[in-house]
Amino acid sequence: MTERSRLGRFLGVSEKLLLEYKNGGECPNDSLKKHSTLISFICDANVAGLGHPVFVGDADKCSFWFEWATPIACAKSQGITTWGLFVTIIVVFTAVYCLGGVFYNRIVHSASGLDQIPNYEFWYNIYDWTKDMTIILAGTIFSFFSKPRSPSTYRGLPRDDEENTLIGEFEEES
């Protein structure tokens, strides 16, 4: 299995984009250290083209630091998504429907109370149907988890043979 090679790694630190190169060749002053480079990308939308890196400094002739002002480092605005637009349209339509309907029913029909709500009976029937279906479904689901009742759970009731004996005695007396 081959090992993937990486040129560097990106670090996101306090809204700065950093590219770090490590483990380069051995440093001339210290054979235990290896060359490293850090490039800091800075957002600058006013730079023409891609900009260019600027050398900032080096520590012990082994670690180098560059800054690169470029418009590519600037975050792109997300804008509105398709779903966001759809939800916004639905919310606006619903608000206009409700407020316009209440206003219309109040002014034209002189409605008050719940009668102001546009198509109140329709919405109440939907609520009522949903409530009924929830009760039915919950009852069906819970019935699967409960134990079935057997006839032996009824106690204190006369058995059939005792009842028949009593009926027979009553018929003989009459």
From TrEMBL:
It is found in: Endomembrane system. GO terms for biological process: vacuolar transport. It comes from the Eukaryota. Residues 1-76 form the MRH domain. InterPro entries: Man-6-P_rcpt (IPR028927), Man6P_isomerase_rcpt-bd_dom_sf (IPR009011), MRH_dom (IPR044865). The chain crosses the membrane at residues 83-104, 124-145. One of its GO terms (cellular component) is late endosome. Keywords: Disulfide bond, Glycoprotein, Membrane, Signal, Transmembrane, Transmembrane helix, Transport. This is MRH domain-containing protein. It comes from Jimgerdemannia flammicorona.
